[in-house]
């Protein structure tokens, strides 16, 4: 018996397969989230469950949530011109400073500031970091003696602001100046997390006017005084550049505001998280101190690893929005022109498909390489590519210098119960963190003062 040969199936046309749209969050899930009044992070968790590239329809524009390392590398590092920042949420606060500007104006500012924020440039600022850290260590010493609880959130804000103010002006700020500048925090909280679709900017009102008053006074003072003996402070350099290059209108003020905002909240929150994590894992402090004597490479590397692992678990700038200007394919999925792309280091850093044991605090990932993925785009607390953080080296130095002054002598034991994360413009502990400061047994009462 013979069987008739089946007719061959028609072949699909040759050529590359058309990539599919990313999996889309169901409208019903979106509605449920809206009804529940949940936070943006809850929605992003739901979308992320669909895969490392997912689609949500939040407003009129489609939004793609991206956590895939290769996709992150593609968007942020390899094709930044096709994915610019658009209508930055902080423009109302920062004007045309380097964080918010685009095009030529951004390039000019970035080039100028880059030299101050890398290599030799940073070394100039380490003495102001030590001065600020020493002052805080003195306060901790008094609290250790008196047994008084400290507000760690306020301490870390004060330290980060003090460092950036000293860097800018060459001298410490008065308590009053720091109090007024502290209102930057209130303003940041009022800013929308994602770029408003209608371009509407919030009214930042009276706080902003007061802060501008202080910044303008500092600029006028720097203009009126010669460069300090140790070389010009950053503000003097900005003024020289503005005069040489005929910077437009309020650009010096915008730049100062940018550095105050970008440099304070981020570093301060990182340091608060670090103290909370050390409170939960005191053995990691012991391990870091045992890595070598004060000032040794071993100890520096261990302190840096504490900061890096803190930034993996809590990348304070947790959501980096971009605008797709062309149709593209990202990590195998179609992304259409006009899409908002949300790069989310928080979700990438906690994805078990990328990081082994992602929820554990394991600083040794960054000293031994164990438990650490090697692919680009797996770790980006400072962003990637040309718009990556200008202050990354500065921030790491400032954080490790504070640890050098505090960790050998004091333990901050948080009195605050474990706290949730609040996902605002940065990710911060949802409640203020208080701690009791204890002097470590081997530290003399004068150590750290
Ligand atoms: C732990 C502390 C910090 C973290 C985690 C952090 C994180 C980031 C991230 C993720 C970006 C890129 C944003 C994007 O791609 O949309 C960024 C940009 C920026 N950061 Fe930081 N930052 C920190 C500290 C600082 C400090 C101390 C300064 C300055 C003193 C600073 C100045 C800037 C500036 C100026 C930009 C904009 C760069 C540009 O667009 O060219 N940052 N930061």
Topology diagram in text:
Elements lengths: L26 H10 L3 H9 L4 E5 L4 E5 L2 H10 L12 H4 L8 H14 L2 H5 L2 H21 L2 E3 H18 L5 H7 L2 H7 L14 H20 L9 H11 L6 H30 L1 H8 L7 H17 L6 E4 L4 E3 L2 E3 L4 E4 L1 H5 L15 H4 L23 H15 L3 E5 L6 E3 L3 E3 L4 E6 L10
Parallel strand pairs: 2-7
Antiparallel strand pairs: 1-2, 3-11, 4-7, 5-6, 8-11, 9-10
Helix pairs in contact: 7-8, 7-18, 8-13, 11-13, 12-13, 13-14, 13-15, 14-15, 15-18
Morphology call: globular
What would the CATH topology be? Cytochrome p450
- Please identify the structural class as seen in this structure: alpha+beta
Q: What is the CATH-assigned architecture?
A: Orthogonal Bundle
The portion of residues assigned to helices is 40-55%
The biggest sheet amounts to: 4 strands, mixed
Explain briefly what this protein structure is.
This protein has 449 residues and is an alpha+beta fold. It is built from 18 helices and eleven strands.
Give structural notes.
The chain has 449 residues and is of the alpha+beta class. It has a single domain (27-439), classed as Cytochrome p450. The chain is built from 18 helices and eleven strands. A hairpin with a 3-residue loop joins strand 9 and strand 10. The structure holds protoporphyrin IX containing FE. Protoporphyrin IX containing FE (HEM) is lined by residues 85, 98-99, 110, 164, 258-259, 262-263, 266-267, 270, 311, 316-317, 320, 381-383, 387-391, 394-395. The site of protoporphyrin IX containing FE has 26 residues, from helix 13 and helix 18.
